[in-house]
Amino acid sequence: MADLTQSPRAPFKAVFDLIKTPWAVIVAILIAVAILDPGNLTEVITFAGKALAHTGQYILFAVLLLSYLKATGAEVMVARAFEGRETRMILLAALFGGLAPFCSCEVIPFIAGLLALGAPLSAVMAFWLSSPLIDPPTLLITAGALGWPFAIGKAVAAVALGLFGGFVVRTMTRSGVLTQPLRNYQPTGCGSCGPKQEDKPVWNFWHDPARRKRFRSEFFRNGLFLLKWLALAYVLEALLINYVPADLIARAVGGDGVLPIIIAALVGMPAYLNSYVAPPLLAGLMEQGMSAGAAMSFMIAGAVSSIPAMAAVWSLVRPKVFATYLGLGIVGAVIAGIIFQMI
């Protein structure tokens, strides 16, 4: 006879598990907007959809690459490539991060892939912090709105923040403070399932049924994970843009001295700050009395992260890594603002 002692709880557990999913939160948010502000529902959905579609190309590329490397067994080579060269990888990650045109949300799929493949957290953090800050188009837009000194200062701050974060994380990792950075993004496979790990990757993995199965499994698992959390991230971003104007937040950080710089970093990080829209906005605020140091701090903190990006990052890494990521971003933004103010 079947055991029915646990069956009454099963439906409630299933409902509770469903409520905890990002999809349920997204639906709840949209329902709330439809009830409280029905005229703005289409704009919220359109913005979130367009943003997710734009980031979708990065998600697709990152997931395909990660699935291919997993199916071929190339993660062994990736992990081996980082052995003994951590300092060099931190330097390269910070430098090349400035060439990657990713915002704080778009960089997450690549960070997830790098961590899942065993890349050192220190090098990943260097890329993570520097990449959203600057890229060639942003450099030109910033120079046009705020002048070349500000643009060059932001570019230097991007690389410096990447190096600072990378070496701080390396020290923390070696001391045992940061271990196993990933939360749920765990590598799949074991000794009794999936393709056998070999010394050399099998690049033509499609000839092996077990490797084809692993490719499909990795693709759907990783793709769904990133899709659901970034969808929630962009819905939150749409709410921020529609109901919490960035200029209103920035006006609270005017004035001179160190305190406005610190406040600018604390306010700028959770706020949405598009790197293409921010320079003209900050140019107008600086004309109204906002200090150059506060503007630099606000721009760097806002580019490093935002509430949407935080939501996605929280689902990806463990709390200690999450706190380190935010702490490095805020501290780096404050230091950059103070130095730029002095110069």
From TrEMBL:
Provide the primary localization: membrane
Q: Which GO CC annotations does the UniProt entry carry?
A: plasma membrane
InterPro entries (alphabetical): DUF318, UPF0718
Its membrane topology is listed as: Multi-pass membrane protein
Q: Which domain of life is it from?
A: Bacteria
Q: Which residues form a coiled coil?
A: none
Regions that span the bilayer: 21-39, 51-69, 90-119, 139-164, 219-241, 261-282, 294-316, 322-340
Any Pfam family hit: ArsP_1
Q: Where in the cell is it found?
A: Cell membrane
Cite the entry's keywords alphabetically: Cell membrane, Membrane, Transmembrane, Transmembrane helix
Similarity annotation: Belongs to the UPF0718 family.
Q: What is this protein called?
A: Permease
Taxonomic lineage is: Bacteria, Pseudomonadati, Pseudomonadota, Alphaproteobacteria, Rhodobacterales
